[in-house]
Design a protein that fits this description.
432 residues; mainly alpha; 77% helix; O-antigen ligase-related domain-containing protein
Length: 432
């Protein structure tokens, strides 16, 4: 497989830095954000400057202008003091997006880059699994502050780990489906041989990430990942059916493939849950009570956002807002909360309606560009489907949790979106 220098630097370096950030408690401290962001921003700047294919598009310029505008507002109001880590994390996410996009503009880089990403998730899942099995009560030798008995990798929060490993499951499944696509046939024996020949890395990564996901016992994370997994497989099977001839031989093979895919998902889900799903099963039993508590929390934060509806209270202001709205009635629920557990509500509190709508608009524009790439690409459409389904999973889980607020995960998501944007833009000159 042909590798360009862009796959070694900057993509390989970016993967190493992101893995380091994930292992360093998600880089969720000001010093860690500054250190990791500096490396990532330098890498992104070097990528844009040195790559002949890298371009800065008008939407990118608008996004940069928005960040600069909000930064200027925070400087003028004095909110910048606590908000600098947030801006550093966002700038690093933008740099990662540009890095991955530049790599994926070259078609020959896409498959190996996805394989490297799959390997990175496998290494993270492998470390998290064995670390949890050996000593489930500590992280890096330090006692876990909460979520005892649940795998949280180095993020402290098991729900953040669920978002990470749910993403890893979908990355690996995309690789498995690519292995199926590469076999060029629907015959069961040839498919099995093709999976072992082309999909071993993806299969191992899928199993490790799936086990880690279930060990997090995150109810929403597990449910959303399973739903998105089914969507991805069904979407790809439908695409394969449209692209192949309607001969009896191909039709029979496709039926075997669909049945085999359904059996694989079902068997994998049952096996993984049987091995490691005790805690998750217990937590599903408490779903109704916890949902009511989450609804009360959302209502409280929604009301709090109305105090500063236009511009919010600034990055890193959640603790102060949380303390202000705490009362005798809700103290047991709000005490110790570090985020709103809803990405839109979090942005509404911190940056007001202007910031929240700017965030949603930026992400929606990226999703739309990737979606349009499905119509313009001849190659790598499966990877675009994978990116879109990952985006769906992260978006859904972000409605009930806060992983995208943690730099160590937000940056992985920016990398995946950057790959999707690069694949889509790289095919803009091709016909459907």
């Amino acid at each position: 497989m042909k590798l360009s220098t862009h796959l070694v630097f900057p993509f390989g370096l970016t993967l190493i830095v992101l893995a380091g950030a994930s292992l360093f408690f998600g880089a969720d401290t000001p010093l860690a954000v500054y250190l990791f962001s500096a490396v990532l921003m330098f890498t992104g700047a070097a990528t844009v400057a040195l790559s002949p294919r890298s371009t800065v598009t008008p939407p990118m310029m608008v996004a940069v202008a928005l960040v600069i505008g909000f930064l200027a507002l925070d400087i003028s109001t004095g909110a910048i003091i606590g908000g600098l880590p947030g801006y550093a994390g966002l700038a690093a996410a933008g740099a990662i997006f540009l890095t991955a996009r530049t790599v994926a503009l070259t078609s020959d880089n896409v498959a190996p880059a996805w394989a490297w990403l799959t390997l990175a998730f496998l290494l993270l899942a492998g470390w998290a699994f064995f670390d949890f099995i050996i000593n489930p009560d500590t992280i890096h030798g330090r006692p876990r502050p909460y979520h005892l008995g649940r795998l949280s990798a180095a993020f402290l929060s098991a729900n953040t780990a669920a978002t990470l490993f749910g993403t890893g499951v979908l990355v690996a499944m995309t690789g498995l489906l690519k292995a199926v696509e590469r076999t060029g046939t629907f015959h069961p024996i040839d498919l099995v041989e093709g999976l072992f020949r082309h999909g071993t890395l993806s299969l191992v990564s899928f199993l490790f990430c799936a086990v880690c996901l279930v060990l997090t016992a995150s109810r929403a994370g597990i449910a959303f990942a399973l739903v998105c997994l089914v969507i991805l497989v069904v979407w790809q099977m439908a695409a394969l059916r449209r692209s192949r001839s309607r001969t009896t031989e191909e039709g029979g093979g496709l039926r075997w493939l669909i049945a085999g895919g359904a059996a694989f998902i079902g068997l994998a889900a049952i096996t993984v849950f049987a091995m490691s799903g005790d805690m998750a099963a217990e937590r599903y039993a408490d779903l109704g009570q916890d949902s009511n508590m989450r609804a009360v929390m959302f209502a409280t934060y929604w009301e709090a956002s109305m105090a500063h509806p236009l511009l919010g209270t600034g990055f890193d202001s959640f603790a102060a807002v949380n303390a202000r709205v705490m009362s005798a009635d809700n103290a047991a629920l709000l005490a110790g909360q570090g985020a709103a557990h809803n990405v839109f509500l979090q942005w509404l509190l911190q940056k007001g309606w202007l910031g929240a709508l700017a965030m949603v608009g930026t992400v929606a524009a990226i999703y739309w560009k990737i979606w349009r790439g499905l119509a313009s690409r001849r190659r790598h459409k499966l990877y675009l489907r994978g990116v879109l389904v990952i985006a769906l999973f992260v978006s859904l889980h972000s409605m009930v949790d806060y992983a995208v607020e943690i730099p160590g995960f937000m940056w992985w998501f920016a990398l995946v979106l950057g790959l999707g944007a690069g694949i889509a833009a790289g095919g803009s000159g091709e016909s459907a």
